[in-house]
Amino acid sequence: MKPRRRVDSNLQPSPLWGRGWTATGVLISRGGTGEGVKTVKAEEMTATTNAVRPRRKTRSPARRPVQIDRARQLRHDGTESEQIAWYLLRSLGLKGFKFRRQHPVGQYIVDFCCPQRRLILELDGSVHGQPSQAKKDARRDTHLKNMGYTVLRLSNGMVLNAPELLVDEVLKVAWSLPEAFVDE
Protein backbone atom coordinates (compact mmCIF):
# COMPACT_ATOMS: atom_id res chain seq x y z
CA MET A 1 0.00 0.00 0.00
CA LYS A 2 1.35 3.40 -0.95
CA PRO A 3 1.84 5.89 1.87
CA ARG A 4 -0.63 8.77 1.86
CA ARG A 5 0.84 12.16 1.39
CA ARG A 6 -0.56 15.58 1.91
CA VAL A 7 -1.53 17.34 -1.31
CA ASP A 8 -1.78 21.11 -1.62
CA SER A 9 -4.94 22.38 -3.30
CA ASN A 10 -3.02 24.45 -5.85
CA LEU A 11 -1.17 21.44 -7.30
CA GLN A 12 -2.23 19.45 -10.35
CA PRO A 13 -3.86 16.04 -9.83
CA SER A 14 -1.40 13.39 -8.80
CA PRO A 15 -1.45 9.72 -9.82
CA LEU A 16 -2.64 8.87 -6.31
CA TRP A 17 -5.96 10.62 -6.99
CA GLY A 18 -6.59 8.97 -10.36
CA ARG A 19 -9.48 9.49 -12.79
CA GLY A 20 -8.63 13.17 -13.29
CA TRP A 21 -10.06 14.34 -9.95
CA THR A 22 -8.60 17.60 -8.79
CA ALA A 23 -6.53 17.46 -5.67
CA THR A 24 -8.36 19.08 -2.80
CA GLY A 25 -6.26 17.92 0.10
CA VAL A 26 -9.21 15.96 1.52
CA LEU A 27 -8.92 12.20 1.84
CA ILE A 28 -12.16 10.29 1.82
CA SER A 29 -12.40 6.85 3.37
CA ARG A 30 -13.76 4.25 0.95
CA GLY A 31 -15.11 1.92 3.62
CA GLY A 32 -12.01 0.15 4.95
CA THR A 33 -10.70 0.39 8.46
CA GLY A 34 -8.47 3.24 9.36
CA GLU A 35 -8.55 6.67 10.83
CA GLY A 36 -12.09 7.82 11.50
CA VAL A 37 -13.72 4.52 10.46
CA LYS A 38 -15.26 2.42 13.20
CA THR A 39 -15.65 -1.30 12.69
CA VAL A 40 -19.06 -2.59 13.71
CA LYS A 41 -19.69 -6.21 14.67
CA ALA A 42 -22.79 -8.04 13.46
CA GLU A 43 -24.31 -8.12 16.97
CA GLU A 44 -23.99 -4.34 17.28
CA MET A 45 -25.45 -3.86 13.81
CA THR A 46 -28.72 -5.67 14.60
CA ALA A 47 -29.06 -3.79 17.87
CA THR A 48 -28.65 -0.52 15.98
CA THR A 49 -31.17 -1.36 13.27
CA ASN A 50 -33.83 -2.43 15.78
CA ALA A 51 -33.49 0.77 17.79
CA VAL A 52 -36.13 3.45 17.35
CA ARG A 53 -34.70 6.24 15.26
CA PRO A 54 -36.12 9.74 15.24
CA ARG A 55 -37.99 10.62 12.06
CA ARG A 56 -37.30 13.65 9.99
CA LYS A 57 -39.97 16.25 10.44
CA THR A 58 -39.90 17.59 6.89
CA ARG A 59 -38.74 16.30 3.56
CA SER A 60 -39.22 19.49 1.60
CA PRO A 61 -40.10 23.08 2.46
CA ALA A 62 -43.52 22.58 0.84
CA ARG A 63 -44.58 20.04 3.48
CA ARG A 64 -45.21 21.09 7.03
CA PRO A 65 -44.56 18.77 10.00
CA VAL A 66 -48.26 18.88 10.92
CA GLN A 67 -49.18 17.70 7.42
CA ILE A 68 -46.63 14.88 7.53
CA ASP A 69 -47.88 13.70 10.93
CA ARG A 70 -51.48 13.79 9.66
CA ALA A 71 -50.52 11.71 6.60
CA ARG A 72 -48.81 9.15 8.84
CA GLN A 73 -51.92 8.95 11.00
CA LEU A 74 -54.13 8.45 7.92
CA ARG A 75 -51.83 5.66 6.70
CA HIS A 76 -52.18 3.97 10.07
CA ASP A 77 -55.98 4.32 10.22
CA GLY A 78 -56.87 3.29 6.66
CA THR A 79 -60.34 2.06 5.74
CA GLU A 80 -60.96 -1.42 4.37
CA SER A 81 -61.33 -0.15 0.80
CA GLU A 82 -58.06 1.83 1.10
CA GLN A 83 -56.22 -1.27 2.33
CA ILE A 84 -57.54 -3.36 -0.56
CA ALA A 85 -56.73 -0.62 -3.07
CA TRP A 86 -53.21 -0.27 -1.64
CA TYR A 87 -52.66 -4.01 -2.00
CA LEU A 88 -53.74 -3.81 -5.65
CA LEU A 89 -51.82 -0.62 -6.47
CA ARG A 90 -48.57 -1.92 -4.99
CA SER A 91 -48.65 -4.74 -7.53
CA LEU A 92 -48.65 -2.13 -10.33
CA GLY A 93 -45.06 -1.31 -9.38
CA LEU A 94 -44.06 -4.29 -11.51
CA LYS A 95 -45.62 -2.53 -14.50
CA GLY A 96 -43.62 0.62 -13.72
CA PHE A 97 -46.20 2.64 -11.77
CA LYS A 98 -45.18 3.30 -8.18
CA PHE A 99 -47.92 4.69 -5.98
CA ARG A 100 -47.66 6.47 -2.65
CA ARG A 101 -50.37 6.16 -0.06
CA GLN A 102 -51.81 9.16 1.84
CA HIS A 103 -49.32 11.45 0.17
CA PRO A 104 -49.17 15.23 0.81
CA VAL A 105 -49.61 17.22 -2.41
CA GLY A 106 -49.70 20.96 -1.91
CA GLN A 107 -52.13 21.74 0.89
CA TYR A 108 -53.98 18.43 0.52
CA ILE A 109 -53.30 14.83 1.48
CA VAL A 110 -54.40 12.56 -1.36
CA ASP A 111 -55.36 8.89 -1.01
CA PHE A 112 -52.96 7.55 -3.66
CA CYS A 113 -50.45 9.33 -5.88
CA CYS A 114 -48.26 8.16 -8.75
CA PRO A 115 -45.67 10.96 -9.04
CA GLN A 116 -44.16 9.41 -12.17
CA ARG A 117 -47.36 10.09 -14.15
CA ARG A 118 -48.73 12.86 -11.87
CA LEU A 119 -51.83 10.75 -11.27
CA ILE A 120 -53.94 11.02 -8.13
CA LEU A 121 -56.47 8.35 -7.18
CA GLU A 122 -59.18 9.33 -4.70
CA LEU A 123 -61.55 6.77 -3.19
CA ASP A 124 -64.98 8.21 -2.46
CA GLY A 125 -67.43 6.85 0.09
CA SER A 126 -71.10 7.71 0.47
CA VAL A 127 -70.34 11.04 2.16
CA HIS A 128 -68.91 12.38 -1.12
CA GLY A 129 -72.41 12.29 -2.65
CA GLN A 130 -73.62 15.14 -0.41
CA PRO A 131 -73.75 18.58 -2.10
CA SER A 132 -71.50 20.29 0.45
CA GLN A 133 -68.82 17.61 0.10
CA ALA A 134 -69.16 17.63 -3.70
CA LYS A 135 -68.32 21.36 -3.72
CA LYS A 136 -65.22 20.74 -1.59
CA ASP A 137 -64.17 17.89 -3.87
CA ALA A 138 -64.61 20.05 -6.97
CA ARG A 139 -62.51 22.83 -5.43
CA ARG A 140 -59.85 20.33 -4.41
CA ASP A 141 -59.78 18.72 -7.88
CA THR A 142 -59.44 22.12 -9.56
CA HIS A 143 -56.51 23.03 -7.31
CA LEU A 144 -54.76 19.71 -7.96
CA LYS A 145 -55.34 19.98 -11.73
CA ASN A 146 -53.83 23.47 -11.68
CA MET A 147 -50.75 21.90 -10.09
CA GLY A 148 -50.50 19.55 -13.09
CA TYR A 149 -52.07 16.39 -11.65
CA THR A 150 -54.79 14.22 -13.14
CA VAL A 151 -57.40 13.26 -10.54
CA LEU A 152 -59.23 9.95 -10.83
CA ARG A 153 -62.17 9.49 -8.45
CA LEU A 154 -63.51 5.98 -7.88
CA SER A 155 -66.10 4.71 -5.42
CA ASN A 156 -65.35 2.48 -2.46
CA GLY A 157 -67.94 0.04 -3.83
CA MET A 158 -65.85 -0.53 -6.96
CA VAL A 159 -62.85 -1.43 -4.84
CA LEU A 160 -64.81 -3.81 -2.60
CA ASN A 161 -67.03 -5.45 -5.26
CA ALA A 162 -64.91 -5.40 -8.43
CA PRO A 163 -61.22 -4.86 -7.64
CA GLU A 164 -60.18 -5.94 -11.15
CA LEU A 165 -62.11 -2.94 -12.53
CA LEU A 166 -60.09 -0.65 -10.27
CA VAL A 167 -56.82 -2.00 -11.66
CA ASP A 168 -58.07 -1.78 -15.26
CA GLU A 169 -59.29 1.80 -14.82
CA VAL A 170 -56.06 2.95 -13.15
CA LEU A 171 -53.90 1.28 -15.81
CA LYS A 172 -55.98 2.76 -18.64
CA VAL A 173 -55.56 6.29 -17.27
CA ALA A 174 -51.90 5.82 -16.26
CA TRP A 175 -50.87 4.55 -19.70
CA SER A 176 -52.59 7.51 -21.36
CA LEU A 177 -50.59 10.06 -19.33
CA PRO A 178 -47.09 11.20 -20.32
CA GLU A 179 -44.09 10.72 -18.04
CA ALA A 180 -43.83 13.63 -15.63
CA PHE A 181 -40.06 13.43 -15.11
CA VAL A 182 -38.11 12.91 -18.31
CA ASP A 183 -34.31 12.77 -18.12
CA GLU A 184 -32.84 15.54 -20.22
Overall description:
The protein has 184 residues and is an alpha+beta fold. It has a domain at 65-176: Endonuclease, Chain A, CATH 3.40.960.10. It contains six helices and four strands. The chain has helices at 42-50, 65-76, 80-90, 131-146, 156-161, 163-176; strands spanning 100-105, 108-114, 119-124, 150-155. A four-stranded mixed β-sheet has the order 1-2-3-4, with helices on both faces.
What characteristics describe this protein?
184 residues, alpha+beta, Endonuclease, Chain A, 6 helices
Low-confidence stretches: 17-29
Overall shape: globular
Strand order of the largest sheet: 1-2-3-4
Q: What does the largest sheet look like?
A: 4 strands, mixed
Percent of residues in β-strands: 5-15%
CATH superfamily membership of the domain at 65-176: VSR Endonuclease
Structural class: alpha+beta
Order of helices and strands: HHHEEEHEHH
Under the CATH scheme, the architecture of the domain at 65-176 is 3-Layer(aba) Sandwich
**How far apart are the first and last residues' alpha carbons, in Å?**
42 Å
Number of strands: 4
Name of the CATH class of the domain at 65-176 = Alpha Beta
CATH topology of the domain at 65-176, what is it called? Endonuclease, Chain A
Cα-based radius of gyration, to the nearest Å: 25 Å
Assign a percent range to the helix content. 25-40%
Q: What is the typical, i.e. mean, pLDDT?
A: 76
Number of helices: 6
